[in-house]
Amino acid sequence: MPTTRRQFLETTLGVAATAALASPAASPYRIGITTNTRGGWENDVFLSFREAREAGYRNVESFLHYFTSYMDKPQELQKKIDEIGVRFVTISNDGTIDTHFEDPTRHEKIIEQHIQLVRFIKKFGCDHLKINSGARRETGTTAEDLKHIAAVLDEVGKRTNAEGLKFAIHAHMWSQIENRRETEFIMENTDPKQVWFVLDTGHITMAGMDPVALAKQLGHRIIEFHLKDVKPEYRGGARQRIVHHEPMTHPVFFPLGEGGVDFKGLMAHLENTAWRGWLTVELDSSPFKPPKESARISLRYLEDKLELSVT
Q1: N or C terminus of the chain with fewer C-beta within 10 Å?
Q2: How large is the average pLDDT for residues 32-57?
Q3: DSSP strand E in 64-202: where?
Q4: Cβ distance 181 to 190 under 8 Å?
Q5: pTM of the model
Q6: What sign does the dihedral 269-272-273-274 (CA atoms) show?
Q7: 117 burial level (CB within 10 Å; 0-12, 13-18, 19+)
Q8: Residue 226 domain-assigned?
Q9: Residue 19 lies in a domain
Q10: CATH code of 157's domain
Q11: How far apart are CA 302 and CA 75, in angstroms?
Q12: 3-class secondary-structure state, position 228
């Protein structure tokens, strides 16, 4: 019996519906891992990439000092990461370039060096530049410092966007931008179209802030989360600042699941607001087990507890 047009359409639509139900929707999140973990990964970046890939990650984030010898031969670096089977989330600034954002006499050099970095990471398909500010001075960051920092971040952001990438500042313990006052000043005094934010759940918590509350406050101005955990007693924000950090003897950051960060609450907020972007696992040190094992612990937490697809 010949198939009627109606039967054909019903069959076709039924197959399509079944396929749609069988095929999960693409994840709104892109998941990576920062691999400069002290305790085994810090001195061999390609070992860290290989072991991260073996642990189940496909995207890696790193720092410029590992790749200065590749600045004029990016194709060689691309070949290496292709062979390992990973791609870059981004490559961050570090002490190899000027990070004295508080000093206006250095701004021209800062802008030039950061745009050179932008043009380098563009070659690897990165969609944003994440940066850290410089080391924190004993006197802290003054109101005048913050004005100068905001001014140069705006300019770097403007030029980064002109190159086709987004630009984001990462608040970090023991850096120029660490606490609530500094974070809020920078966000309030920079152009939201030029300067974005990387929210690090561990550093934000240890600086006395609740990462879930800050995510709600900053909303879609966040383009990347760094995911690390802390001890349960610091949940919602540490009450006292840790002055000296000894990551290989007394770590304050741990693989996901320690209990100090409300990751389920964070993911519920991201789902409710339809946030899209990078979720990057990070662990500053892994003194009691190999970094690869710590990376797997965090991956299992993402998959089993947060029901995220990493691979």
Answers
A1: N
A2: 98
A3: 87-92, 128-132, 166-170, 196-200
A4: no
A5: 0.91
A6: positive
A7: buried
A8: yes
A9: no
A10: 3.20.20.150
A11: 33
A12: coil
